[in-house]
Amino acid sequence: MVESTIKIKTLITAEQIQKRVSELGKEITNYYGNKVSEKKPLVIIIVQKGASIFGSDLVRKIKLPSDLRFMRVVSYKGETRPQSDPEIFDEIKSGIKGDNVLVVEDILDTGKTLVFIEDYLTKLQPMSLNFATLLVKKIKRKTKAPRIKFMGFHIPNKFVVGYGLDFNEIYRNLPYIGVMEN
Ligand code: IMP
Ligand code: MG
Questions:
Q1: Mutational pocket test of ligand 1: of 53, 106, 167, the residue with most ligand atoms within 8 Å of the beta carbon
Q2: CA neighbours within 13 Å on the CB side: how many for 60?
Q3: Which residue stretches of the chain are H helix?
Q4: Would the pTM of this model clear 0.70, i.e. be above it?
Q5: What number of other Cβ atoms are within 10 A of residue 31's Cβ?
């Protein structure tokens, strides 16, 4: 890691993350407990690549029959601000009509990505659609973002990396969340 030139200041420690992820797993398990079954599992859609680490930890704390799916939305293209509208790279292959769907995202920033995902998935007629996101940035949003049912932490309006979040594809493997300085 090039930590000689770029400093990363810890914002949320690995231990804090793991504790919160366990709590979220319990909340989700309680919420969907009587809504899903082996015949009708909870469809968990993990948004790549940012939510891949959070998602893989979270699903192991959800004690319910679950069907894991993945989708990819790209908007950042190596910048610290959104550069274009999100585009979906992978389809939700086998359909979600009539399913209870939980979308797992890394962070709510402007809200553009989740609005886009919500519109896209709503057209596929799930029975229910909820969002779990690890982080929510405290900012004034122009877009009315979807309601986040399961949320990990509020963070200040800073660019963060680690635990799945990247800068130019680097730092996703940090076990903690940090703020990039300079
Ligand atoms: P939004 O569409 O502006 O809400 O941005 C959402 C996406 O941008 C997230 O899914 C992240 O992949 C990325 N993103 C937003 N803020 C950050 C950040 O602070 N660090 C790294 N990625 C971010
Ligand atoms: Mg993302």
A1: 106
A2: 6
A3: 14-32, 52-59, 112-122
A4: yes
A5: 16
Residue partners of 53: CB distance under 8 A and separation at least 6: 163, 164, 172, 173
| 3-class DSSP state of 77 | coil
CA 97 – CA 102 distance, rounded (Å):
13
The residue ranking higher by pLDDT, 133 or 147, is 133
Pocket test for ligand 1, best of 103, 110, 113 (most atoms within 8 A of CB): 113
Segment 119-123 mean pLDDT? 92
Residues with CB under 5 A from ligand 2 (ion): 50, 106
Q: What is the mean pLDDT of residues 62-79?
A: 84
**Residue in 57, 99, 106, 109 annotated catalytic:** 109
Q: Encoding tokens for residue 116?
A: 């886009």
Mean per-residue pLDDT, 44-49: 94
Residue from 98, 110, 162, 170 nearest 136 by CA? 110
